[in-house]
Amino acid sequence: MNIEKDKILLEGLAKNDKAAVEAIYKDNFNMVQSFILNNNGSTDDARDIFQEAMIVLYEKSRVANFSLHCQLKTYIYSVCRRLWLKRLQQLNRFTGQVESLEEVVPVEEELENHEKLNADFMMMEQAMSKIGEPCKSLLEAYYIQKKHMQEIAEGFGYTNADNAKTQKYKCLMRLKKLFFAQYKNGQ
Hints:
The chain has 2 domains: 3-104; 125-185. By secondary structure, it is mainly α. The protein contains 9 helices and no strands. Helix content is 76%, strand content 0%.
């Protein structure tokens, strides 16, 4: 937790310092985007909500006696979360009460879970980059592009869908092995 860095960023934001605004964006946008994408939103929704949160933060930073009682990241996440849940409620996509949500899931706990998940995704990306071809393309075709086994068999030159399925299984086991080797080493 770098309170001094957060303080400098807030002071920069209050003065409309472009570098401070860009640093806040760079450090926090992906976290907010992930939350919104995982909760019935789009990238455009994430941009809108993040922009609203930046306005809130800007206005707060200009008040002389404003001081953060948590990390800047936690504050931004909390504001974005409230704004997004309020928007979902207005669109009738969310039925809970926004005000009572803090009691159900403390923001710090949710942020911690999000950061852990993010770290796991980064390790999975590293494992995917090490797996090599044709495994990488085959797994992406199946899990990301959502292609059917027959389509994959034809595209990769396998004799039938069952052979493609067997190869996908072998690739998945290889990926799992790479991922857990990294996970164990804490990389």
